[in-house]
Specification:
two-stranded antiparallel sheet; TIM Barrel; 10 helices; globular; alpha/beta
Length: 336
Protein backbone atom coordinates (compact mmCIF):
# COMPACT_ATOMS: atom_id res chain seq x y z
CA UNK A 1 0.00 0.00 0.00
CA UNK A 2 1.44 3.42 -0.93
CA UNK A 3 2.33 5.82 1.87
CA UNK A 4 -0.63 8.06 2.75
CA UNK A 5 -0.42 11.63 1.49
CA UNK A 6 -2.39 14.27 3.38
CA UNK A 7 -4.70 15.76 0.72
CA UNK A 8 -5.43 19.43 0.24
CA UNK A 9 -8.82 18.55 -1.23
CA UNK A 10 -11.93 19.25 0.83
CA UNK A 11 -15.16 18.12 -0.84
CA UNK A 12 -18.23 20.32 -1.07
CA UNK A 13 -20.20 19.94 2.14
CA UNK A 14 -23.49 20.14 0.21
CA UNK A 15 -22.58 17.27 -2.13
CA UNK A 16 -25.27 14.90 -0.89
CA UNK A 17 -27.93 17.56 -1.35
CA UNK A 18 -26.97 17.93 -5.02
CA UNK A 19 -27.43 14.28 -6.03
CA UNK A 20 -30.33 11.84 -6.13
CA UNK A 21 -29.77 8.24 -5.00
CA UNK A 22 -31.71 5.07 -5.75
CA UNK A 23 -31.64 1.64 -4.20
CA UNK A 24 -29.87 -0.96 -6.32
CA UNK A 25 -32.45 -3.65 -6.93
CA UNK A 26 -33.58 -5.23 -3.67
CA UNK A 27 -30.20 -4.68 -1.99
CA UNK A 28 -29.36 -2.23 0.77
CA UNK A 29 -26.98 -0.29 -1.50
CA UNK A 30 -27.90 3.16 -2.77
CA UNK A 31 -26.26 4.37 -5.97
CA UNK A 32 -26.19 7.92 -7.35
CA UNK A 33 -28.46 8.38 -10.36
CA UNK A 34 -25.33 9.58 -12.20
CA UNK A 35 -22.18 7.45 -11.92
CA UNK A 36 -18.79 8.26 -13.44
CA UNK A 37 -17.07 5.79 -15.75
CA UNK A 38 -13.34 5.94 -16.45
CA UNK A 39 -13.49 4.15 -19.81
CA UNK A 40 -12.08 7.19 -21.65
CA UNK A 41 -9.94 10.20 -20.63
CA UNK A 42 -8.20 8.56 -17.66
CA UNK A 43 -5.53 6.46 -19.37
CA UNK A 44 -1.80 6.83 -19.36
CA UNK A 45 -1.98 8.86 -22.57
CA UNK A 46 -4.33 11.40 -20.95
CA UNK A 47 -3.67 14.34 -18.64
CA UNK A 48 -3.61 13.18 -15.03
CA UNK A 49 -4.46 16.64 -13.72
CA UNK A 50 -7.54 16.82 -15.93
CA UNK A 51 -8.69 13.39 -14.77
CA UNK A 52 -8.02 14.38 -11.18
CA UNK A 53 -10.09 17.55 -11.58
CA UNK A 54 -12.99 15.55 -13.07
CA UNK A 55 -12.94 13.08 -10.17
CA UNK A 56 -12.90 15.86 -7.58
CA UNK A 57 -15.73 17.78 -9.25
CA UNK A 58 -17.81 14.63 -9.58
CA UNK A 59 -17.44 13.88 -5.88
CA UNK A 60 -18.29 17.51 -5.06
CA UNK A 61 -21.58 16.96 -6.90
CA UNK A 62 -22.45 13.82 -4.94
CA UNK A 63 -21.26 11.31 -7.54
CA UNK A 64 -20.11 8.53 -5.22
CA UNK A 65 -19.81 5.67 -7.71
CA UNK A 66 -16.69 5.33 -9.89
CA UNK A 67 -16.60 2.54 -12.46
CA UNK A 68 -13.46 1.00 -13.98
CA UNK A 69 -12.26 -2.16 -15.69
CA UNK A 70 -8.92 -3.93 -15.82
CA UNK A 71 -8.22 -2.94 -19.44
CA UNK A 72 -9.37 0.68 -19.38
CA UNK A 73 -6.68 3.03 -20.62
CA UNK A 74 -4.92 3.13 -22.94
CA UNK A 75 -2.59 1.42 -22.26
CA UNK A 76 -4.44 -1.35 -20.44
CA UNK A 77 -4.54 -0.91 -16.68
CA UNK A 78 -3.64 2.76 -16.67
CA UNK A 79 -7.12 4.07 -15.84
CA UNK A 80 -6.92 2.08 -12.61
CA UNK A 81 -3.45 3.50 -11.99
CA UNK A 82 -4.78 7.02 -12.55
CA UNK A 83 -7.64 6.38 -10.16
CA UNK A 84 -5.26 4.95 -7.57
CA UNK A 85 -3.08 8.04 -7.81
CA UNK A 86 -6.12 10.31 -7.38
CA UNK A 87 -7.22 8.25 -4.39
CA UNK A 88 -3.81 8.70 -2.82
CA UNK A 89 -3.68 12.44 -3.45
CA UNK A 90 -7.30 13.41 -2.81
CA UNK A 91 -9.92 10.81 -2.08
CA UNK A 92 -8.54 8.21 0.34
CA UNK A 93 -10.04 9.86 3.46
CA UNK A 94 -13.46 9.45 1.81
CA UNK A 95 -13.12 5.79 0.81
CA UNK A 96 -16.13 4.75 2.90
CA UNK A 97 -18.27 7.33 1.10
CA UNK A 98 -17.49 5.81 -2.29
CA UNK A 99 -18.59 2.84 -4.37
CA UNK A 100 -15.70 1.68 -6.55
CA UNK A 101 -16.19 -1.02 -9.17
CA UNK A 102 -13.98 -2.82 -11.63
CA UNK A 103 -14.40 -5.64 -14.13
CA UNK A 104 -12.67 -8.49 -15.91
CA UNK A 105 -13.73 -10.43 -18.99
CA UNK A 106 -12.02 -8.89 -21.99
CA UNK A 107 -8.42 -9.37 -23.04
CA UNK A 108 -5.93 -8.03 -20.52
CA UNK A 109 -2.59 -9.88 -20.82
CA UNK A 110 -1.07 -12.34 -23.33
CA UNK A 111 -1.58 -16.07 -23.17
CA UNK A 112 -4.53 -18.31 -22.32
CA UNK A 113 -5.17 -16.92 -18.81
CA UNK A 114 -5.68 -13.21 -19.56
CA UNK A 115 -9.18 -13.23 -21.05
CA UNK A 116 -12.72 -14.60 -20.80
CA UNK A 117 -14.29 -16.02 -17.61
CA UNK A 118 -12.18 -18.67 -15.88
CA UNK A 119 -11.57 -18.62 -12.14
CA UNK A 120 -7.85 -18.32 -12.91
CA UNK A 121 -8.37 -15.12 -14.89
CA UNK A 122 -10.94 -13.44 -12.64
CA UNK A 123 -9.02 -13.93 -9.39
CA UNK A 124 -5.68 -12.89 -10.89
CA UNK A 125 -7.23 -9.87 -12.61
CA UNK A 126 -8.84 -8.54 -9.46
CA UNK A 127 -5.59 -8.93 -7.52
CA UNK A 128 -3.85 -6.87 -10.20
CA UNK A 129 -6.61 -4.25 -10.16
CA UNK A 130 -6.41 -3.85 -6.40
CA UNK A 131 -2.65 -3.30 -6.63
CA UNK A 132 -3.03 -0.71 -9.37
CA UNK A 133 -5.63 1.23 -7.38
CA UNK A 134 -3.97 0.77 -4.01
CA UNK A 135 -7.16 -0.68 -2.53
CA UNK A 136 -7.89 -3.51 -0.12
CA UNK A 137 -11.24 -4.24 -1.79
CA UNK A 138 -13.65 -2.99 -4.44
CA UNK A 139 -17.33 -2.54 -3.77
CA UNK A 140 -18.50 -4.24 -6.98
CA UNK A 141 -16.62 -6.74 -9.14
CA UNK A 142 -18.15 -7.58 -12.51
CA UNK A 143 -17.72 -10.28 -15.05
CA UNK A 144 -17.45 -7.96 -18.04
CA UNK A 145 -19.07 -10.16 -20.71
CA UNK A 146 -20.50 -13.68 -21.14
CA UNK A 147 -18.06 -16.49 -21.89
CA UNK A 148 -19.87 -19.37 -23.57
CA UNK A 149 -16.73 -21.55 -23.49
CA UNK A 150 -16.44 -21.52 -19.69
CA UNK A 151 -19.13 -23.15 -17.54
CA UNK A 152 -21.32 -20.44 -16.06
CA UNK A 153 -20.95 -22.12 -12.68
CA UNK A 154 -17.18 -21.66 -12.72
CA UNK A 155 -17.47 -17.94 -13.45
CA UNK A 156 -20.19 -17.31 -10.87
CA UNK A 157 -18.52 -19.44 -8.20
CA UNK A 158 -15.35 -17.40 -8.75
CA UNK A 159 -17.33 -14.18 -8.21
CA UNK A 160 -18.91 -15.66 -5.10
CA UNK A 161 -15.55 -16.75 -3.68
CA UNK A 162 -14.16 -13.28 -4.33
CA UNK A 163 -17.04 -11.76 -2.36
CA UNK A 164 -16.62 -14.30 0.45
CA UNK A 165 -12.90 -13.45 0.57
CA UNK A 166 -13.67 -9.77 1.17
CA UNK A 167 -11.90 -8.55 -1.98
CA UNK A 168 -15.27 -7.36 -3.30
CA UNK A 169 -18.49 -6.58 -1.46
CA UNK A 170 -20.89 -7.31 -4.31
CA UNK A 171 -20.98 -9.27 -7.59
CA UNK A 172 -22.14 -7.95 -10.93
CA UNK A 173 -22.32 -8.90 -14.61
CA UNK A 174 -22.29 -6.95 -17.86
CA UNK A 175 -23.67 -7.59 -21.35
CA UNK A 176 -25.49 -10.83 -20.41
CA UNK A 177 -28.77 -11.58 -22.19
CA UNK A 178 -31.97 -12.12 -20.14
CA UNK A 179 -31.76 -15.93 -20.07
CA UNK A 180 -28.12 -16.07 -19.03
CA UNK A 181 -28.73 -13.29 -16.49
CA UNK A 182 -31.41 -15.39 -14.82
CA UNK A 183 -29.11 -18.43 -14.84
CA UNK A 184 -26.26 -16.41 -13.32
CA UNK A 185 -28.57 -15.11 -10.60
CA UNK A 186 -29.69 -18.66 -9.77
CA UNK A 187 -26.10 -19.92 -9.47
CA UNK A 188 -25.07 -17.00 -7.27
CA UNK A 189 -28.13 -17.36 -5.05
CA UNK A 190 -26.98 -20.90 -4.33
CA UNK A 191 -23.74 -19.48 -2.92
CA UNK A 192 -25.54 -16.94 -0.70
CA UNK A 193 -24.09 -14.12 -2.84
CA UNK A 194 -26.94 -12.37 -4.66
CA UNK A 195 -26.39 -10.84 -8.07
CA UNK A 196 -26.39 -7.15 -7.21
CA UNK A 197 -26.29 -5.43 -10.58
CA UNK A 198 -26.20 -5.73 -14.35
CA UNK A 199 -24.42 -3.23 -16.63
CA UNK A 200 -25.89 -3.23 -20.17
CA UNK A 201 -25.69 -0.68 -22.95
CA UNK A 202 -28.88 1.39 -23.22
CA UNK A 203 -29.69 4.56 -25.07
CA UNK A 204 -32.25 5.99 -27.49
CA UNK A 205 -30.44 4.38 -30.42
CA UNK A 206 -29.99 0.98 -28.76
CA UNK A 207 -33.07 -0.23 -26.91
CA UNK A 208 -32.28 -3.94 -26.81
CA UNK A 209 -32.60 -4.05 -23.00
CA UNK A 210 -36.31 -3.33 -23.41
CA UNK A 211 -36.70 -6.74 -25.08
CA UNK A 212 -36.78 -8.70 -21.84
CA UNK A 213 -33.69 -7.75 -19.86
CA UNK A 214 -35.23 -4.91 -17.84
CA UNK A 215 -38.17 -7.15 -16.98
CA UNK A 216 -35.84 -9.94 -15.85
CA UNK A 217 -33.86 -7.56 -13.66
CA UNK A 218 -36.97 -6.11 -12.08
CA UNK A 219 -38.47 -9.53 -11.40
CA UNK A 220 -35.22 -10.76 -9.84
CA UNK A 221 -34.56 -7.63 -7.80
CA UNK A 222 -31.29 -6.94 -9.63
CA UNK A 223 -30.10 -3.37 -10.08
CA UNK A 224 -29.29 -1.90 -13.48
CA UNK A 225 -26.61 0.64 -14.35
CA UNK A 226 -26.63 1.50 -18.04
CA UNK A 227 -23.53 2.47 -19.97
CA UNK A 228 -23.24 4.56 -23.15
CA UNK A 229 -26.48 6.51 -22.54
CA UNK A 230 -25.21 9.08 -25.06
CA UNK A 231 -24.27 6.45 -27.67
CA UNK A 232 -20.61 7.49 -27.51
CA UNK A 233 -21.56 11.11 -28.15
CA UNK A 234 -24.05 10.62 -30.98
CA UNK A 235 -26.89 11.71 -28.66
CA UNK A 236 -25.42 15.17 -28.13
CA UNK A 237 -25.34 18.26 -30.31
CA UNK A 238 -21.70 17.54 -31.17
CA UNK A 239 -22.31 16.08 -34.63
CA UNK A 240 -25.33 18.08 -35.79
CA UNK A 241 -23.27 20.20 -38.20
CA UNK A 242 -20.50 17.77 -39.08
CA UNK A 243 -17.64 15.92 -37.41
CA UNK A 244 -15.42 18.23 -35.34
CA UNK A 245 -11.71 17.60 -35.76
CA UNK A 246 -11.22 17.03 -32.04
CA UNK A 247 -14.18 14.68 -31.65
CA UNK A 248 -14.08 10.96 -30.92
CA UNK A 249 -15.54 10.18 -34.35
CA UNK A 250 -12.63 11.99 -35.99
CA UNK A 251 -10.22 9.49 -34.44
CA UNK A 252 -10.99 6.04 -35.96
CA UNK A 253 -11.24 3.41 -33.25
CA UNK A 254 -13.33 0.45 -32.21
CA UNK A 255 -16.15 2.33 -30.49
CA UNK A 256 -17.15 5.23 -32.72
CA UNK A 257 -15.93 6.33 -36.11
CA UNK A 258 -16.95 8.72 -38.85
CA UNK A 259 -18.98 5.92 -40.44
CA UNK A 260 -21.24 5.82 -37.39
CA UNK A 261 -22.27 9.46 -37.87
CA UNK A 262 -24.83 8.60 -40.52
CA UNK A 263 -27.09 11.26 -42.09
CA UNK A 264 -30.25 9.49 -40.95
CA UNK A 265 -28.97 9.33 -37.37
CA UNK A 266 -28.00 13.01 -37.42
CA UNK A 267 -31.45 13.89 -38.76
CA UNK A 268 -33.15 12.06 -35.89
CA UNK A 269 -30.87 13.62 -33.29
CA UNK A 270 -31.54 17.06 -34.75
CA UNK A 271 -35.28 16.57 -34.20
CA UNK A 272 -34.65 15.22 -30.70
CA UNK A 273 -32.50 18.25 -29.99
CA UNK A 274 -35.42 20.55 -30.75
CA UNK A 275 -37.58 18.61 -28.29
CA UNK A 276 -34.83 18.84 -25.68
CA UNK A 277 -34.73 22.62 -26.11
CA UNK A 278 -38.47 22.79 -25.50
CA UNK A 279 -37.89 20.92 -22.23
CA UNK A 280 -35.17 23.34 -21.19
CA UNK A 281 -32.45 20.71 -21.56
CA UNK A 282 -29.51 19.99 -23.80
CA UNK A 283 -29.73 16.96 -26.07
CA UNK A 284 -27.33 15.08 -23.80
CA UNK A 285 -29.30 15.94 -20.67
CA UNK A 286 -32.54 14.72 -22.21
CA UNK A 287 -30.90 11.49 -23.39
CA UNK A 288 -29.70 10.74 -19.87
CA UNK A 289 -33.05 11.64 -18.34
CA UNK A 290 -34.71 9.35 -20.88
CA UNK A 291 -32.81 6.24 -19.73
CA UNK A 292 -33.40 7.16 -16.08
CA UNK A 293 -37.16 7.34 -16.67
CA UNK A 294 -37.19 3.55 -16.41
CA UNK A 295 -37.92 2.57 -12.81
CA UNK A 296 -35.65 -0.46 -13.16
CA UNK A 297 -32.63 1.68 -14.16
CA UNK A 298 -30.73 2.49 -10.99
CA UNK A 299 -28.04 4.73 -12.44
CA UNK A 300 -26.67 6.10 -15.72
CA UNK A 301 -22.96 5.55 -16.20
CA UNK A 302 -21.42 8.51 -17.97
CA UNK A 303 -17.99 9.62 -19.06
CA UNK A 304 -16.54 13.11 -18.87
CA UNK A 305 -13.69 14.93 -20.55
CA UNK A 306 -13.78 17.97 -18.27
CA UNK A 307 -15.20 19.09 -14.90
CA UNK A 308 -17.72 21.26 -16.73
CA UNK A 309 -19.03 18.23 -18.61
CA UNK A 310 -19.83 16.35 -15.42
CA UNK A 311 -21.57 19.46 -14.09
CA UNK A 312 -23.76 19.63 -17.21
CA UNK A 313 -24.50 15.92 -16.93
CA UNK A 314 -25.65 16.13 -13.32
CA UNK A 315 -28.11 18.84 -14.34
CA UNK A 316 -29.94 16.10 -16.25
CA UNK A 317 -31.54 15.31 -12.91
CA UNK A 318 -33.32 18.67 -12.84
CA UNK A 319 -35.97 17.27 -15.17
CA UNK A 320 -36.45 13.52 -15.26
CA UNK A 321 -40.21 13.42 -15.88
CA UNK A 322 -41.52 13.05 -19.42
CA UNK A 323 -45.10 13.64 -20.47
CA UNK A 324 -46.88 10.96 -22.46
CA UNK A 325 -46.82 13.31 -25.44
CA UNK A 326 -43.05 13.79 -25.19
CA UNK A 327 -42.45 10.05 -25.03
CA UNK A 328 -44.66 9.55 -28.08
CA UNK A 329 -42.73 12.23 -29.96
CA UNK A 330 -39.43 10.55 -29.08
CA UNK A 331 -40.66 7.15 -30.23
CA UNK A 332 -41.94 8.68 -33.47
CA UNK A 333 -38.64 10.42 -34.18
CA UNK A 334 -36.61 7.30 -33.43
CA UNK A 335 -38.85 5.22 -35.68
CA UNK A 336 -37.80 7.55 -38.51
Amino acid sequence: MPMFITPDYRPDETRYEQMQYQRCGRSGLLLPRISLGLWHNFGGVDSFENGRAILRRAFDLGVTHFDLANNYGPPYGTAEETFGKAMLKDLRPFRDEMVISTKAGWDMWPGPYGDHGSRKYLVASLDQSLRRMGLDYVDIFYHHRPDLDTPLEETMWALADIVHSGKALYAGISAYDPERTAQAADVLNGTKVPLLIHQPVYNMLNRDVEKGLLTTLEQRGIGCIVFSPLAQGLLTNRYLTGIPGDSRAARPQAYLGAGDVKPEVVARVSKLNELAKSRGQSMAQMAIAWVLRQASVTSALVGASSPRQIEDTVRSLDRLVFSASELQQIDSILAG
